[in-house]
Structures are given as structure tokens and as C-alpha cells.
Amino acid sequence: METQLPDDFRCPISLEIMSDPVILPSGHTFDRVSIQRWLDSGHRACPITKLPLPEHPCLIPNHALRSLISNYTLVCPSKLQPCPQPQILISSLTSQSSHVGTKLNSLTHLVRLTKHDSGFRRKLTELGAAPGVLKCVGSDDPSLQEKALSLLLNLSLDDDNKVGLVAEGAINRVIKVLRFGSPDCRAIAATIITSLAVVEVNKATIGAYPDAIQALVWLLISGKGREKKEAATALYAICSFADNRRRAIDCGAVPILISLLDSGLERAIEVLGLLVKCKEGREEMMKVNGCVKVLVSVLRNGSSRGVQYGLFTLNCLCTCCERLCFEAINEGVVEICMGLMEEENEKIRRYTSSLVQTLRENHAFG
């Protein structure tokens, strides 16, 4: 038998072990008492899928699940202890009397419950979970901090939560982790930045924090594989906002990204593809010796997405600088472009055509 209680035994509404599981027309199972209370309150949508329900939805007994729960109770009765109520779990995170072990246990419960349940994520934020979670993110205990970051990441997955979490002060906490956390914590912190930046207004807010972009660039330098990749992804997410591109350039991101790209981190070309859109970005790239060689290498060996960004970046640079056109030619870009003209990917064909035209207009080849 499993050492952990199967999640499917708990009602998605009450989070308690179901005594009379029933199936909604949406296909999801709930405890009869909980779903009946939900329907009696006037709701006519599935609590999980949010899809509309009939006026009088049929509640079909889930005999198979009820039998499983019953059998499990007989074999492992000690494992069927009810999960604490969300409010109790949240309170333990802020209580001064709670020990680290208690907080860690509460966070473990909450991480599991929020992993796939958007309804429960929203419920937690409505209950005021954010301050307690952020307090644990600021903990000096690495295990507690990592678990709190995992919960914060889960909460950030819902667009409705993203702006509120930033307003609660999530960015300040996450920036500190980027600088001083363990490698795993830093990687999760960068992923949280990416998640929060999905909402457009958050991109400007994040970039406006004095140390946010600097911390991500620092992670590109000092981090390991996963940290570097997540930091590059976060920079890509926030640099779709134009003002953040200049901030990243001012923090010295361009030569670092080119170096990482040369070392095999293809995610770096996506960020360079955004930074090249501004004059300052192009100027910085032109200063880096071997920049064209690295970009041509991406065209030769990169993934389809990498080739797209490589073509775009190289074309932007060649449009502004005749010297770079001749460098590209010397690196064999024309032969590569001839091959890319036959690609199935329409964007690659279009970007290839633009680059060839740029080279012709600069008289780099006939």
C-alpha cells in the first residue's frame, strides 16, 4: 500500500475523506454533502472545470471509489486522518508559536493541494494566505524556504492571483532569494518571476524594482545549469516590455548572454532576440568579438525556435552594420540560408529571405 493518502479520496471542496462520493455531469467526483451544499447555494457550474451544469444536475454515486475508500480504511485506518482545514494550515504559517516542523508540514499539505486545483489556489488567496507564505519565503531555514517558494509558485499559476501577489510584496522576497538562496531556491524564484510576468502590468512593476533585473543577470553569471536557464527564461518574460530591455542592457546582460549561447544555453538567443530590438542592444552586441560567429552557429545547429531568433537577431545587426554583413558571409551564412529556404517553418523561410535581402542591399554578396 502507498505510504501517502491518495488525493482522489478527498473531496475537492471540503478536502476531507469522502463518505458518499458522487459524480457530476462534468465527470468530477465530490462528496455528496459538499456538492449538494454548493448546488443549494445557487451555483450552476462545476467547481473544478467552471463549465455550466444542468438546472438539476444528476449526482451519480461513484460506487467504485466508495469501495476503494472503504477497503483502504480497513487495511490502513491510521492513514485516513482528515487533512487540516485550510485556515488552520494558513494560521500555522504566521503564528509565532509554530515550530519549523509544523510550518513545513502545513506547507507540504498546501503545496500538494494547490498543485493541480485552481479553485483551491484561489480559495487560499481569498483566505489571506499570501502574507504567511511570503513570511516563510523569507525564512533562514532552506527547507522551509524551498517549500514556501513551491507554494508561492503554485499560487502564481492563476492569472487572478498574479497582480495580488505582487501587491503583497512577493517581488522583494523573491529578489532576496535570487541573491542569497540555495541553488534550488534560486531556480524556483526565477520561475516565479516568469509566472508573475505573464500579466502585462507585472512586467513593468517587476522591472521597476531596483535589483530585480540585476539579480537575474547575476544568476546568469553565478548560477548552475537550471538556475541559468530559469534566469534567462525570466529575462525573456519581462523583456517583452520595452523599458526592461534597456535595464537588462545596462546591467551588462548582452555579453553574458552571448557567452552563454556560445556555451550551449540556447534560451539566451531568445533574450538576445528581444534586446536587439533597441538601439542600445544592437550597439552592445556589435562590441562583442565573435558575436556573429555565435549567431551563425545557432543557425547551423540550433532548434527550430533557436534558428528563428538567430535569423531575426542577425538580420537586425546586419541591417545596421556593413562590417557584420561581411563577417556573416565569411562564417558561411549564405550557404546556411540557401538550405533554410526549403524549411517547412514559414517564419524561418521569411526571416531567411529578409536576411538574404539585407546582405544583398549591403553589397555583401551579389
UniProtKB/TrEMBL annotation:
Transmembrane segments: none annotated. Keywords: Repeat, Transferase, Ubl conjugation pathway. Its EC number is 2.3.2.27. GO terms for biological process: protein ubiquitination. Pathway: Protein modification; protein ubiquitination. Residues 4-79 form the U-box domain. It catalyses: S-ubiquitinyl-[E2 ubiquitin-conjugating enzyme]-L-cysteine + [acceptor protein]-L-lysine = [E2 ubiquitin-conjugating enzyme]-L-cysteine + N(6)-ubiquitinyl-[acceptor protein]-L-lysine. It is an enzyme of class 2 (transferase). The keyword Magnesium does not apply. InterPro entries: ARM-like, ARM-type_fold, ARM_PUB, Armadillo, RING-Ubox_PUB, Ubox_domain, Znf_RING/FYVE/PHD. One of its GO terms (molecular function) is ubiquitin protein ligase activity. PROSITE patterns: U_BOX. PANTHER family: U BOX DOMAIN-CONTAINING, U-BOX DOMAIN-CONTAINING PROTEIN 8. This is RING-type E3 ubiquitin transferase. It comes from Gossypium mustelinum.
